[in-house]
Structure formats: C-alpha cells, structure tokens
Amino acid sequence: NRRFVLAKRPDGKPDRETFERREEDVPEPEPGEALIRTLYLSVDPYMRGRMNAGESYAEPWAVGGPLRGGVVGEVVDANGSGFETGDIVTGNLEWADYATAPGSDLQPVDPDLAPISTALGVLGMPGRTAYFGTREVARPQPGDTFVVTGAAGAVGSVAGQLASMAGARVVGFAGSEEKVAFLEDDLGFDVGIDYSTTDDYRAALEDAAPDGVDAYFDNVGGEITDAVFTQLNVDARVAICGQISLYNAEELPTGPRKLPTLIEKRARVEGFLVGDFAPRFEEATRNLGRWVSAGDLEYRETVTEGLENAPEAFLGLFEGENIGKQLVKVGER
Ligand code: NDP
C-alpha cells in the first residue's frame, strides 16, 4: 500500500521534498470500519494551510503523519460499516491506495447519477462552496456585474455560472488565454481577463465592467482584489472565499489597500467557510446535480494519473496548471 506523509513543513512554496511516499501493508479495518480502495483523490488549495504548524481553519498535519483529503473509492471490505462490498463512497481519507474509515465518516456515491469523480468537484465540496458563496454571500441580482477570480478553477468556474443563472453580467480573472477561452466559449462568461498578460488590472476591469462591480467572489486576493475594490458600486457584496495568491507567502504583504472605497460604497466584505452551510449540503448537491443533468451547468476536470503524482498535482494548483477541478486518478473502477 503506497501512502504519502508530510515529510517536512514548507517555508513558503512547498515542493517535492514536502512529501514522502511510503510502502506499507494494506491496513486492517477495525469492526465497523470499511477498507476502501482509492479511485480518485482530490488535491485542494486549503491543504497548503494544513502544512503549517500554526492554526488555520483546518487542523495542521503532523510531520511524519498522513496527508488526507477528499477521496472517492470502492469498498473492498465492508466489515460491518453499513456499506456493502463494491459500494462507491466518498470521505476524507489518506493519500493512499487503500485506507480505512468508520462507516459514519463515509457518504455513498451513486455511480448512475453522474461520473463518480464529480463527488469531489462540481457535486462535491468545491461545487457547494461556489453554491453558498455565490447565492448566500455575494448574492448577484439580475443586471448586476459579478466578478470572480480563479475563475477557471473548481470553485470559480461554478460560481461564475451560478451568477449568470441569477441574471448577472459575469467577468472572470484567470491565468491564461486558454482559460479565458474556456470561460467565454464553454461557460458563457461575458468577459474573461487573462491576468497573466495584463499589467493594469484596474484598466482591464474598467473595460470589462464599465458599470462597476456589484458582487465580487474572491478566490485569489492580492493585487487583483485591490483593483476590484476600486471598482465596487454602492452596496456591493464581496465574498472572500480564498486568497490563494497569499498561501505561500512567508510574510503577508502589507501596504496601502483599497479600503477607503469600502466606506464610500458602503460595501460589505464577508469571509465564509463552506462547512458553515453543512445543514444545507443536500440542497446544494441536489440543485447542482439537477443543473448539471439539464446541461445548465458545465464543469471540467483535470485528471493526473497515478497516486505517485499526487504531489505534482497539488503543487500545480499554485502554478495554475489545472482547468476546473484538479483530481488524481489512483485506481481503475
Ligand atoms: P482552483 O481549481 O481554482 O485551483 C487554484 C487556481 O488558483 C489555479 O488554477 C490558478 O489559476 C489560481 N492561482 C494559483 N496561484 C495564483 C496566484 N498567485 N494568483 C492568482 N491566481 C492563482 O482551486 P479551488 O477551486 O479548489 O479553490 C479556489 C479557492 O477557493 C482557493 O483559494 C481555496 O482556498 C478556496 N476555497 C475556499 C473554501 C471555503 O470554504 N471558503 C472551500 C474551497 C475552496 P490561474 O491560472 O487562473 O492563476
């Protein structure tokens, strides 16, 4: 059984040395625990926070301890867990070929409803983050201008489409020409801005959103967010979902930020965690599933083959190598 542990805490940017791969026996499930064979593993930006010693909203990983994340797998030994052998389940499991978990920590995945990988993407945690962040925090109204950063990623791509469905004009920031084409041609965004070739984010935004910004869904932070703040309209809503441009910073940059506009515009800036909406997860999954089935919600996945390449897949999130949800395919169904 191949499994990854945290080799050391990264200073700044993590690299291959942050991870250690071990070969161990397949774990024996305790009574009530299932043994699961990993099919897909999710790598997510929040995992960077778990590599630090300090408190973040997710508990720090121990050095030498296992890495964990969203997994979709097949129950190979049900062992009184409440599942049956052959069931497809999802849960927060180790980065490994095989892992054990109590039945109460696993949720069933219906392979007839949608491809099973979507339980980690559009119909999983990232989809739900977009759902609640857009509808409950940024709250785009018909005719509003909605801006999203990290727009071609797992969360951003869904957030922008939900804002379109709400009747907003949607502008997305993403890091390549290919991603901008994805936003405009496949997802129906009104305008995509390739920030990697743009020096003046504010001027680009003035062109893309001449009526200003009513709702902003931020996955990135930093200078792009500074530029968006200068363009907010009165009563704008800002949903702070993520700040990936700062996750590898050894020291958070300080300096003049565009906060005076918030006063003038009576804007509301609100951070949120998807977990706060746990009592409504079923509603989100049901609606997202319905929209995907109806063809109203598009999604894309970038699939890296092989558990051994999970570290590269994770590191690639910080280089913008993914379009849509980044997954690692670990086993064949
Ligand atoms: P993505 O699929 O969006 O992948 C990350 C993307 O971020 C990359 O593809 C890259 O795209 C972009 N990026 C990376 N580094 C930078 C940078 N320095 N500046 C600008 N863009 C950068 O990941 P997710 O959809 O899973 O997550 C998106 C955000 O949502 C993250 O910040 C994450 O932490 C947050 N999040 C928050 C949750 C919550 O409960 N609040 C829950 C889930 C996620 P590009 O090529 O465009 O640069």
UniProtKB/TrEMBL annotation:
Q: Key word Transcription regulation present in the record? A: no
Q: Which InterPro entries does the protein's record reference?
A: ADH-like_C, ADH_N_2, ER, GroES-like_sf, MDR_fam, NAD(P)-bd_dom_sf
Pfam families on file: ADH_N_2, ADH_zinc_N
TM region(s), chain numbering: none
Domain Enoyl reductase (ER) residue range list = 12-328
Superkingdom per UniProt: Archaea
Is the Glycoprotein keyword given for this protein? no
Q: Which UniProt keywords apply?
A: Oxidoreductase
> Quick one: where's region Disordered?
1-31
Q: Spell out the Basic and acidic residues composition-biased ranges.
A: 1-24
Protein name, UniProt field: NADP-dependent oxidoreductase
Species of origin: Natronoglomus mannanivorans
